[in-house]
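Please review the protein record below. Let me know how this chain folds according to its tokens.
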Amino acid sequence: MVEGPSAASQFQTRLFSYIQRIEPLVGREKAWGILEDLVKERRLRWLNSAKIGGGDPVEEAYRLFYTEYLKLDPEDAEIVEKKPERIVVRWRNPCPTLDACRALGIDTRFVCRSVYESSTQAFMEKVDPRLRFSRSYETIRPHSEYCEETIELI
């Protein structure tokens, strides 16, 4: 039996479709910027109610963001570098953003940079102001077989 898109993917597709419809009215940057602001607000509100452990900041940020907030399965992660000051992960998880971008013909590089980059950085800084988040836009699905992301202590 073939399953259809998940409820999260369907929601994301409807949301992105709406953003595309308001682009001509307010401009592309502003339309996606509104979503970026909402995502950032939601992430920080969630983090304010979470228990931040106070241990290794890189490990703590990884745990809070990927495991607790996004609820990603560790089986979908390939940790390619792990040091006290840096973790690099290649994700192959089911992704509603990827599904929505595919369905609507939107480049994930644009959406992930415009909507999710600064909100993820804000999340990291709330865990520890010295943390930096980055994503490789050369290795991002569907242009690559995985999305590579880094959390770094600087």
User: Anything to note?
Assistant: The domain at 7-153 is CATH 3.30.1380.20 (Muramoyl-pentapeptide Carboxypeptidase; domain 2). The chain has one domain: 7-153. DSSP finds five helices and four strands in the chain. Residues 94 and 130 are 30 Å apart (CA to CA).
